[in-house]
TrEMBL record:
Protein name (database record): Homeodomain-like protein
Keyword set, alphabetical order: DNA-binding, Nucleus, Transcription, Transcription regulation
Compositionally biased tracts (Low complexity): 180-199
GO CC terms of this entry: snRNA-activating protein complex
Region (Disordered): 166-201
Gene Ontology MF term list: RNA polymerase II cis-regulatory region sequence-specific DNA binding; RNA polymerase III type 3 promoter sequence-specific DNA binding
Domain HTH myb-type intervals: 66-120, 122-171
One GO-annotated biological process of the protein: snRNA transcription by RNA polymerase III
Ranges for domain SANT: 69-117
Gene3D superfamilies: Homeodomain-like
Amino acid sequence: MSFAQKSEKKWTEEEDEVLRAAIDSDRQTHLLRRSEGAKINWQKISDCLPGRSNKSCRKRWIHSLDPTLRKGRWTAAEDAVLLDAVAMHGQNWSKVARHVDGRTDDQCAKRWRENLDPGISREPWTPEEDRTLLEALKMHGQKWNTISTLLPGRASVHCRNRYSRLRRARDTVSSQQEGSRASSPSGRSSPTDPSSSYPNNLVRSLFNC
């Protein structure tokens, strides 16, 4: 079965409207405040949406439609609350998210893993790490979560970004080499060719180019 077949079908505007109406009705019935989404009867909600499970309805609401949902840049105050919540609950993200108004469990987990986790390395990447990254790519493809486990202190997004930088550097080196060969009668790089500098030599060795 292909990935597309496994993926959930896209929500329609009509389904979104039914979901909003069903949640409003459920809240009015039980006199729930808007912030008490955890008490919504998701099984009852899903009964209004054939083909959608209670988990699917909950995910759609919490991650996309809830008007209290906050998106975009995190504030210093939110980071402080998140740090306190992680200290209290560990990486139980559903509990952590209850302390951070307007942020989902996925948002909290991502913010922690990519920015706030004290285990994240802030040091420049080493040639050894770059080689490990490229070897892991050959073995696992672009499965960044898997690759990050082979690079302590490097989150999956940092591995992906590092590979993008290395690939751009490789393309730059290749362009420089082609330009140098075209301008040199012998077809060889001149002694002043910028590709002879340490960073470019490193890039060539990493990609075996």
